[in-house]
Amino acid sequence: MTAKRMLVAEAVVVGGLALALLVKEMPGIVREVRIWRMVGLRAGSRHPR
Fold first, then answer.
1. So which domain of life are we looking at (predicted)?
2. What's this model's pTM, rounded to 2 decimal places?
3. How many whole angstroms separate alpha carbon 29 and alpha carbon 49?
4. For the segment 16-35, what is each residue's pLDDT rounded down to a tens digit?
5. What is the per-residue DSSP string for 1-49?
6. CA-CA distances (angstroms) from residue 10 to 5, 31, 35?
7. 23-43 core/surface letters (b: 16 or more CB in 10 A; e: else)
8. CA–CA separation, 24 vs 33, rounded Å?
9. Which residues contact 21 (CB under 8 A, 6 or more apart)?
């Protein structure tokens, strides 16, 4: 097996693992985005009273 084919195979494996992790974590990411929208994305940048 040549070095180029080995690099392509490794890239495919790493890409597949990253895609699988993203799909697995998608419900949690959606939940976090909903919470951020309810709270407001700029909640930490308010001026103190």
1. Bacteria
2. 0.58
3. 32
4. 999 999 999 999 999 999 99
5. --HHHHHHHHHHHHHHHHHHHHHHHHHHHHHHHHHHHHH-TTGGGPPP-
6. 9, 32, 37
7. eeeeeeeeeeeeeeeeeeeee
8. 16
9. none
* Owner of token pair 């890409």: 15
Residues composing the chain: 49
User: What are the Cα distances from residue 44, in Å, to 12, 24, 31?
Assistant: 40, 29, 19
Chain position carrying tokens 């597949």: 16
